[in-house]
Amino acid sequence: MRIYEAKDYNDLSRKAANIISAQIIMKPDAVLGLATGSTPIGTYKQLIEWYEKGDLDFKEIKTINLDEYKGIGPENEQSYYHFMRTNLFDHINIDLANTNIPNGLEEDIEKECARYDDIINQSGGIDLQLLGIGCNGHIGFNEPGISFDKSTHCVKLADNTIQANARFFESIEDVPKYAYSMGIKNIMQAKSILLVASGENKAKALYEALYGPITPAVPASVLQLHNNVSIVADEEALSIVKSEKESLL
Ligand code: F6R
Prior knowledge:
Elements (H helix, E strand, L loop, with lengths): L1 E5 L2 H18 L4 E4 L6 H12 L9 E4 L1 E3 L10 H8 L11 E2 L8 H14 L5 E4 L21 E4 L2 H7 L12 E4 L2 H5 L3 E6 L5 H9 L17 E6 L4 H10 L1
Parallel strand pairs: 1-10, 2-3, 2-6, 3-5, 6-9, 9-10
Antiparallel strand pairs: 4-8, 7-8
The structure holds fructose -6-phosphate.
């Protein structure tokens, strides 16, 4: 596991975008696993800037997003589909036919999960999976307690996740209670993983994920078992990691 410390959010975004760019340059038809949330927005902005400068080409890139709320459609401004269009896809030359996000409107859970697993498996494998981390240690919508051997599934969101996501909705009642998410098994099958974390509210989860016991209670702790993980985090997110290390010196 490699940990890259960023000075601030801008630095984090540039460092993360550099890692993604390297993947795109090395393999122009790479399969990228993508995340939504606040943290990767700056990374996507940086990728767009480099695309506009002519340094990146997304023509052959394929993407598979981690998750989508269940019960809302692509036209809903809070859908992850909408997020990906506005924060990345509409600004680069990606072929939308090569982008994949779970279908939040599919009522048949078994059917949607099987469809999504097929997409992941038939893609030849995710070359680089981008992840954020929840304050409770979740990755994707794999909430504490999740079994590590799950592939795509429908999750009931944890109360603290609903609270954390309420900032994007008019009221907390509007936050969907369920979501489709890639499972830990899908994430761990990615060839490489890039986790981004920003802010003090992530410090405890990040510390536990990197140095705590590997346990479903902190889903991100499973990443300790992957052989190609890069962490890009700012000083605040790394504050506990750093203070614990210093106390050992
Ligand atoms: C998003 C996702 C979530 C977020 C996590 C952190 O697709 O799967 O796991 O990465 O909730 O979100 P932010 O970046 O908003 O703090």
